[in-house]
Amino acid sequence: MFPFIAMPIEHLQEELIRLSDRKTKEWWEAYLKHSLNFRGLKLPQVRAIVRKWMEAEKFYSQLPSQQLDTALALIREPWGEDKLAGILVLQEALIKHHLVNWESDLPKFATLFDAGYINEWNTCDWFCVKVLNPLIKQHGKSCANVVMQWCNANNLWRKRASVVSFVNIAKHGESNFPNFTQMLLETCAVVIQSPERFAQTGTGWALRELGLAEQEAVIHFIKTYSTRFSSEGLRYAMEKFPLTLQTQLKQYRHLQLKQIK
Question: Which residues are within 8 A (CB) of 9 and not within 5 positions of it... i.e. 6 or more apart?
Fold first, then answer.
């Protein structure tokens, strides 16, 4: 359990409610197939409200531990915009100013997934792109390794995060840090074993970007695990390859599947 010393979030939520729009709410909920409730705001609106609230509440005068608990409290709320607000607090108040202790805070982030507060792809990917990826960029290989170990999690969304957290840096390959490519491929090799759609697409997304830097390594991976890919996961992984190569890899997978039958 987290120690609850967060700042009150009621004023922020009142503003989110005041500016909400039913059509936007309906669009978001339909887009996410009703896997998450929304108040009815767009991302730029939420960002503007969060910044105004942090200034009004003198947020930056709070201890980093209080700022962190406030962010976590927002992510534990049932609304999409509140979760995004918490993610933006983490990004803009803490990570931007190098105030996250990744060794002690990554287990807290893992609990958000395991306790069901992040349980659909939209919040998962926001968290990966706005929190985990910049944290990895700041702290390098040791931090990356801990996030990659999430591939062994039973929770689908934490498993997805173990690969999606690297999509923005995968295209840089080994320039990220030594042995990056092998580490990411080993992580993908675990996640691809899951037939769940969002494990498959997460793996494919990471491989698609890694293929820009390490095409031969990704081709070898696809061939090695060809029978573990769903059609959609494979399509994601090959999306930036030449069409002739995509056709060859599809045919290779088809032949491998025939041999199994």
Answer: 70, 73, 74, 77, 82
